[in-house]
Amino acid sequence: MLHLFCPYCQELREEDEFHYRGQAHIVRPKGPESLSDKEWGDYLFFRHNPKGIHHEMWYHVSGCRRFFNVTRNTVTYDIYETYKIGETPAVTAKEETE
To answer: What is the pLDDT of residue 96?
Structure first.
């Protein structure tokens, strides 16, 4: 079982209290009405699924009920950091490979 540190509650809690919400840092396109069907479909449905470092969004259902981001290794399940929405991650995939 994963243990996640909620950056808002400032507590380490079990995974059961949270819901995974997908890839973090997805930016909504400006002027979506001008996108082609393919571009809009890519935005809505296609996400990165890396082997290794991945930035994910989680929701603290049983706690503060807020969204936050997690940097996790999808191979080892190691969690490197949690951080608030809008903050920049300290760990990136490039750093992992150096």
So the answer is: 52
